[in-house]
């Protein structure tokens, strides 16, 4: 027998836990958080690679409703962020709602009963509303490389670090130059015998304003909350001011490129290596990376930068697209995640019996990044076009939580067994507006191929505005954008005597 809940949240990262807190604050206690893993934490449970840390300062990369005066550094490490999420889970009494080891295998809208039916690894659930918070960067992407299966040594992805493997004294190859790879390289370089970095595209790297947050600052943040708020406000404001250059005037990013080039020049004296590390696309087109130790690590005697992607594996030999061949004992992929083809989409079937993946075959699209046509009472946390290039995703998550809260309020006001489904015209109009704005952004015009773009070159991931604008457009649910569905009326013959119109058996 399936357990019925008002809301089923899928995922227990910042998005799912944030939704759970918000539900409780809205007085909704009849909900579960379905998590496929055996612990909460999402990104910050899965990414345990050496050097793993956030790249948006911790005082902004945390919930506004759960400030943490104790952040140890500007950019705190994974153990601290994971511990923070565990604390949030305890503080807000979320444990009783957690259903761990409960991978959602399918979610199907039952139009007859007006509810979702979920099949999970730990049993069946039905829910009035589903919140999908499965994360934009949660399913690792491993490139298909001929011969990889026969590589004799350990092979793993940055988000599934194998701590059983001792890399000390080994010849290690790292594939990729994204946000994870540039944290891994300096962390492992001192202990491996040889490190080869396969770089398909060099990244733009800016200095990282990281430092320990002093005891005095922490004391002050604990005793005088206004100081904490001011710090967060400043971090937020600086990033909001940068948005226009990314979304409307990429030509203004030349100055930032100059800063990045100076950073590279300072660290890398060898002009040939510097040339290999210099990007040929506009800064910001791919995610800008922050590091003070990545470039210095690449200049060490035990490091080689192969300016070409890994094309083939022949035994323990790794062959780059340009023909370079190196031997390695272990292979680490920092090749990112499945971002534009959200894996959960294949498992969610809507009102017409069509999966979300089919609906999105020409590109992901959702009204206000949150609801999709054909999928009643389903909301995404970090849905299509909600990603940020320069600021904290928690800001976007919290905006979507406002929308979720209003969505539930609207359902309550409408009463009965009701569902709201985004009108296709509203989704299309929203998406057309987004795509029009995308044309001017650095992501679409900067001359790079990035994970913001899908296989057709459409940008279905990034938000082309400020976080303040997103907060504004997700404050309220506009019922004009929705179609209301009501449960088909059943014959009234069974209504118990004495009950009036409103008490018709449902
Ligand atoms: C290394 C790294 C560093 C990052 N640093 C920053 C940063 O500094 N600033 C920033 O803004 N963003 C950063 N991000 C992006 C980060 O992913 C988001 O900020 C945020 O953590 C996403 O939270 P989420 O809850 O949406 O997703 P996740 O944290 O990915 O959580 C999703 C959860 O859903 C679960 N799940 C997935 N599918 C199913 C299923 N079918 N059934 C049940 N459960 C399922 C997963 O197991 C996971 O626990 C970083 C990402 C990575 C990988």
TrEMBL record:
<dbReference type="GO" id="GO:0050660">
    <property type="term" value="F:flavin adenine dinucleotide binding"/>
</dbReference>
<keyword id="KW-0503">Monooxygenase</keyword>
<dbReference type="GO" id="GO:0050661">
    <property type="term" value="F:NADP binding"/>
</dbReference>
<keyword id="KW-0285">Flavoprotein</keyword>
<dbReference type="InterPro" id="IPR020946">
    <property type="entry name" value="Flavin_mOase-like"/>
</dbReference>
<comment type="similarity">
    <text>Belongs to the FAD-binding monooxygenase family.</text>
</comment>
<comment type="function">
    <text>Catalyzes a Baeyer-Villiger oxidation reaction, i.e. the insertion of an oxygen atom into a carbon-carbon bond adjacent to a carbonyl, which converts ketones to esters or lactones using NADPH and/or NADH as an electron donor. Thus, can convert bicyclo[3.2.0]hept-2-en-6-one into the oxidative lactone products 2-oxabicyclo[3.3.0]oct-6-en-3-one and 3-oxabicyclo[3.3.0]oct-6-en-2-one. Is also able to catalyze the sulfoxidation of methyl phenyl sulfide (thioanisole).</text>
</comment>
<dbReference type="InterPro" id="IPR036188">
    <property type="entry name" value="FAD/NAD-bd_sf"/>
</dbReference>
<keyword id="KW-0274">FAD</keyword>
<feature type="region of interest" description="Disordered">
    <location>
        <begin position="486"/>
        <end position="506"/>
    </location>
</feature>
<keyword id="KW-0521">NADP</keyword>
<dbReference type="Pfam" id="PF00743">
    <property type="entry name" value="FMO-like"/>
</dbReference>
<keyword id="KW-0560">Oxidoreductase</keyword>
<dbReference type="InterPro" id="IPR051209">
    <property type="entry name" value="FAD-bind_Monooxygenase_sf"/>
</dbReference>
<dbReference type="GO" id="GO:0004499">
    <property type="term" value="F:N,N-dimethylaniline monooxygenase activity"/>
</dbReference>
<protein>
    <recommendedName>
        <fullName>Baeyer-Villiger monooxygenase</fullName>
    </recommendedName>
</protein>
């Amino acid at each position: 027998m399936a357990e019925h809940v008002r809301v089923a949240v899928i995922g227990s990262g910042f998005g799912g836990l944030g939704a759970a807190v918000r539900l409780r604050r809205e007085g909704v206690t009849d909900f579960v958080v379905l998590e496929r893993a055996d612990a909460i934490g999402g990104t910050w449970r899965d990414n345990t690679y050496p050097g793993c840390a956030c790249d948006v300062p911790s005082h902004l990369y945390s919930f506004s409703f759960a400030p943490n005066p104790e952040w140890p550094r500007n950019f705190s490490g994974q153990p601290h962020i994971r511990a923070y999420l565990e604390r949030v889970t305890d503080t807000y009494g979320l444990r009783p709602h957690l259903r761990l080891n409960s991978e959602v295998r399918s979610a199907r809208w039952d139009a007859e009963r007006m509810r979702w039916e979920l099949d999970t690894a730990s049993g069946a659930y039905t829910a009035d509303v589903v919140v999908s918070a499965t994360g934009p960067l949660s399913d690792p992407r491993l490139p298909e490389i001929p011969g990889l299966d026969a590589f004799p040594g350990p092979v793993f992805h940055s988000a599934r670090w194998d701590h059983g493997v001792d890399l000390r004294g080994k010849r290690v190859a790292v594939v990729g130059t994204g946000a994870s790879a540039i944290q891994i390289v300096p962390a492992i370089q001192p202990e491996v015998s040889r490190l080869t970095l396969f770089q398909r595209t060099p990244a733009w790297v800016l200095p990282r304003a990281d430092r320990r947050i002093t005891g005095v600052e922490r004391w002050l943040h604990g005793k005088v909350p206004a100081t904490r708020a001011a710090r967060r406000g400043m971090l937020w404001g600086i990033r909001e001011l940068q948005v226009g250059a990314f979304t409307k005037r990429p030509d203004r990013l030349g100055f930032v490129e100059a800063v990045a080039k100076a950073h590279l020049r300072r660290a890398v004296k060898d002009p040939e290596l510097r040339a290999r590390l210099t990007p040929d696309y506009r800064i910001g087109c791919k995610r800008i990376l922050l590091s003070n130790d990545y470039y210095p690590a690449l200049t060490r005697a035990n490091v080689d930068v192969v300016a070409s992607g890994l094309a083939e594996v022949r035994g323990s030999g790794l062959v780059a697209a340009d023909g370079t061949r190196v031997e390695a004992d272990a292979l680490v992929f920092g090749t990112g995640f499945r971002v534009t083809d959200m894996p959960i989409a294949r498992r969610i079937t809507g009102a017409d019996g069509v999966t979300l993946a089919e609906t999105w075959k020409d590109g992901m699209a959702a009204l206000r990044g949150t609801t999709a046509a054909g999928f009643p009472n389903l909301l995404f946390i970090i849905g299509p076009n909600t990603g940020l290039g320069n600021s904290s995703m928690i800001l976007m998550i919290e905006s979507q939580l406002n929308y979720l809260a209003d969505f539930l309020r609207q359902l309550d006001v409408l009463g009965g067994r009701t569902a709201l489904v985004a009108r296709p015209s509203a989704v299309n109009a929203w998406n057309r507006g987004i795509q029009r704005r995308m044309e001017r952004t650095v992501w679409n015009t900067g001359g790079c191929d990035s994970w913001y773009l899908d296989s057709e070159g459409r940008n279905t991931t990034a938000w082309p505005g400020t976080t303040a604008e997103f907060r504004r457009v997700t404050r309220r649910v506009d019922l004009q954008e929705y179609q209301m569905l009501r449960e088909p009326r059943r014959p009234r013959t069974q209504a118990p005597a004495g009950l009036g119109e409103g008490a018709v058996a449902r």
